[in-house]
Amino acid sequence: MQLLIEAGNTYVKVAQLFESGKFELLGRYPRRKLEMVLEPLLEKGIHRIVFASVGPVEVDNSIQRIAQLANIPVMQVKTLRKDFGVKNAYSEYQYLGVDRWLTLVAIRQKFKKPTVIIDIGTALTFDVLAEDGKHLGGWIAPGYQLMMQSVLENTCKVFSDREHGECITFSDNTADGLKNGCRAALIGLSNTV
């Protein structure tokens, strides 16, 4: 059995890949809890750890260290110039986030059709994949929480609350105005593609 890890900007997602090819998502955890989550999993007969990371190097180092202490081989997936039927559009291909690269590869393997990929996380990313597997490039923008956080941290009298409305309307209060404005910005950007 293999342990698959995707270390994102905010969360770490962990899954088990069984010999049969089936996998089980074990969960999504805050980055700071990585070691606490991984250590008990390594006692379940894991024979390899495969991970991809767009998080800080400390996360990569933690995974490497935990694997080494448990004497389990570890493989870090990296972005490539061309492989698996996908040609990376970036001239400095290594700077395309490995999360985006793996999504391009997965989409290509499954559909083999022109595709626009929109991924909403800490960042909002857009990538375009041609029918022949050529990555045509993409965009990166702040995700919803990051956009709201930016406004809240850089203004004096704007505030938010934890409630989320059902629809986007013109707001008659600051908290809803911020939430609806950020959601409208994300939708507007999505509609531009």
From TrEMBL:
EC id: 2.7.1.33
Catalytic reaction list: (R)-pantothenate + ATP = (R)-4'-phosphopantothenate + ADP + H(+)
One of the GO biological process terms: coenzyme A biosynthetic process
Swiss-Prot/TrEMBL keywords: ATP-binding, Coenzyme A biosynthesis, Cytoplasm, Kinase, Nucleotide-binding, Potassium, Transferase
Pfam families: Pan_kinase
Top enzyme class: transferase
GO MF: ATP binding; pantothenate kinase activity
Cofactor(s) in the UniProt record: NH4(+); K(+)
Keyword RNA-binding applies: no
GO cellular component: cytoplasm
Pathway: Cofactor biosynthesis; coenzyme A biosynthesis; CoA from (R)-pantothenate: step 1/5
Keyword hit for RNA-binding: no
Compartmental location: Cytoplasm
Known partners and oligomeric status: Homodimer.
Protein family (similarity comment): Belongs to the type III pantothenate kinase family.
Name recorded for this polypeptide: Type III pantothenate kinase
Gene encoding the protein: PA4279
